[in-house]
Amino acid sequence: MMTPKMKEDICIRIRESSRQLFLSARISEVCREKGTQKQLEFVEELFREELDLRDGNRRNRLIKRAGFPVYKTFEGYGYDSVKFPPAFGIEGLERLDFVPERKNLVLYGPVGIGKTHMAIAAGVKACQLGYKTKFHTVTELVLKLAEARKNGTLERLLKELRALDLLILDEWGYVPVDKDGSQLLFRVISDSYESKSLILTTNLEFSKWGGIFTDDQMAAAMIDRLVHHGHLLIFEGRSYRMEHALMRQDA
């Protein structure tokens, strides 16, 4: 038999679910006044299933909008090639502790060793946790920024980027960026400082960033903003793609 305390508790949960579903508060009032135990349990279960469905749909929309080139997760990921800093480890990475803290990750190392896989896995997990996320290669983002400036929509694009919780920039420094592109990238980095998390994948050590971004001072300012609230993860070893390449196996 349902006690008055049990009835009050379930009505409170129904009221909270109604609020999340943007339904009238009158629903919980009617439940409190007229609902039997089985009726209240049914309403609570119905609301919970609807909230779960909406939450799943929202996560799927976030993953779709993020623009990942492929779908990757942390399941089965090998960390043998990754050196973590003392204050940040595997558990913190997979829990995404750095995102609510608005800290950055710089994934540094040679090509084909798992940097992009890790970045995408973190991005997918972020979407599953409800964080607004976007994935871009640096070249793709620079072209998009330049096109938006040409079309007069740059501020709108920058506003969209500012609204993110996590921005992933893949292949940082793989291709030289001209002065205009460097200035646009610097604006994105500056806008992100202490307002969102960034993940960068790069095979370029910090001392060489000036040569890629045409301006040593601008590169130093980017580095300063990235490392002030961030962690450097160093990848070492041989390329996974080369180790498992069909041509290598055939040879």
Description:
By secondary structure, the chain is of the alpha/beta class. It has 12 helices and 6 strands. Helix 8 runs parallel beside helix 10. The radius of gyration is 24 Å and the shape is elongated. 29% of the residues are buried. The model has no long low-confidence stretch (mean pLDDT 87).
What does this entry show, briefly?
The chain has helices at 4-20, 26-34, 37-66, 90-95, 115-128, 138-151, 154-162, 179-192, 209-212, 216-228, 240-243, 246-250, and strands at residues 82-83, 104-108, 133-137, 166-172, 197-202, 230-235. By secondary structure, it is an alpha/beta fold. The radius of gyration is 24 Å and the shape is elongated.
Question: How would the global form be characterised?
Answer: elongated
Structural class: alpha/beta
The ordered H/E elements are HHHEHEHEHHEHEHHEHH
Note the beta-strand portion.
5-15%
- Which radius of gyration do the C-alpha atoms yield? 24 Å
**Measured distance between first and last alpha carbons:** 74 Å
Number of strands: 6
- Specify the biggest β-sheet: 6 strands, mixed
- Which strand order spans the largest sheet, edge to edge or round the barrel? 1-6-2-5-4-3
Given as residue ranges, the uncertain stretches (5+ residues, pLDDT < 50) are none
Question: Helix coverage percent of residues?
Answer: 55-70%
- Number of helical stretches of at least 4 residues: 12
The overall pLDDT, averaged over residues, is 87
